[in-house]
Amino acid sequence: MDLGLHGKRAVILGGSKGIGWYTAKLLSDEGCTVALCARQQEGVDAAVARLTEAGSQAFGSSVDLADGAATRAFVKKAVEDLGGLDILIHNASGFGVDNSEEAWRRSFEIDMMAGVRAVEEALPALKASDAASVTFVGSMASKFYFGRGVSAYGPAKAAMRTYANEFAQAHGKDGIRANVISPGAVWFPDGSWDQQKKNNPKFYAAVEKAIPLGRLGTGEEIARIIVFTASPAGLWLNATHLVADGGQVAAVD
Fold first, then answer.
1. Quick one: which of 154, 23, 179 has its CA closest to 94?
2. Residue 147: what pLDDT?
3. CB neighbour list of residue 166: distance below 8 Å, 6 or more residues apart
4. Is the pLDDT of residue 138 over 80?
5. Is residue 39 predicted with pLDDT exceeding 90?
6. pLDDT of the residue at 164
7. How many C-alpha atoms does 247 have within 13 Å on its Cβ side?
8. Residue 229 zone, left/alpha/beta (φ > 0; ψ -120 to 50; rest)
9. Which CATH superfamily is domain 9-187+219-244 in?
10. Which residue in 121, 198, 200, 224 has its CB near the most CB atoms, within 10 A?
11. For 175-191, what is the mean pLDDT?
């Protein structure tokens, strides 16, 4: 299938490792020029180097996405470097997995407001595109209680789903789509589930057993879903929440 991505321009918030990295790599492989950011400059430099060594054109910056001015400045510069914008992907998270005020603050600033700020900054360029899409990477914690106590993480991802729907409804007339993809448990090297596998193998095995497919998802598998949804081939996906958990949550949305 031709995804229609050759020559398209993409920005990824949180693109140096994990799901963000696999997404950046797949977009590049499909012919996109990519601009990505992450907190650590070393990781950004490594990701950009890997993309350019593979023959792709890529840009990157170190950005604390809790900083509103820095987030807007990155998106503005990325659009300038790319010469426009077709695809915006918000993959970053504050991972507020407890009930502290700091966890709530970081989750709100990164999971929600970084996306809002990036979209606002990118909006003129997206309106000028003939294949504009905004894709948010959410979590199944936005619809299911996993039993770890009250935390900021799930509510922030739930707010993201509502924002994406409102944006899609308001800007469909401008030819801009918006969707949310919510992974379940996903394994990739050095990720949180890789740490669980090493440090708490019984718990990891129990999670695997509970998933109908008998294993966790991978970063590459989630990236394929993100890239299809964001691409022109996914044109009729709009204002949609896509569950990507391999059946981990036994529920109907």
1. 154
2. 84
3. none
4. yes
5. yes
6. 98
7. 8
8. alpha
9. NAD(P)-binding Rossmann-like Domain (3.40.50.720)
10. 121
11. 96
186, 216 contact by CB (below 8 A): yes
- Burial of 114 by CB count in 10 Å (0-12 exposed, 13-18 middle, 19+ buried)? buried
Per-residue model confidence as pLDDT tens digits over 202-228:
999 999 999 999 999 999 999 999 999
Q: What is the DSSP string of 102-149?
A: HHHHHIIIIIIIHHHHHHHHHHHHHHH-SSEEEEEE--GGGT---SS-
Write b or e for each residue in 22-46: b if 16 or more Cβ atoms lie within 10 A of its Cβ, otherwise e. bbbbbbbebebbbbbbbeeeebbeb
Residue 250 burial (CB count, 10 A): 9
**Helix, strand, or coil (residue 245):** coil
**CB distance 135 to 179 below 8 Å:** yes
DSSP, res 83: T
End-to-end CA distance of the chain: 29
Rg, Å, the chain Cα set: 17
Give the span between the Cα atoms of 8 and 31, in whole angstroms: 7
Q: What is the pLDDT of residue 114?
A: 98
Distance CA 101, CA 90 (A): 23
Q: How far is CA 187 from CA 107, 126, 196, 217, in A?
A: 22, 32, 10, 6
* Local structure of 228: helix, strand or coil: helix
Cα–Cα distance for residue pair 24/156, rounded to 1 Å: 24
pLDDT for residue 234? 98
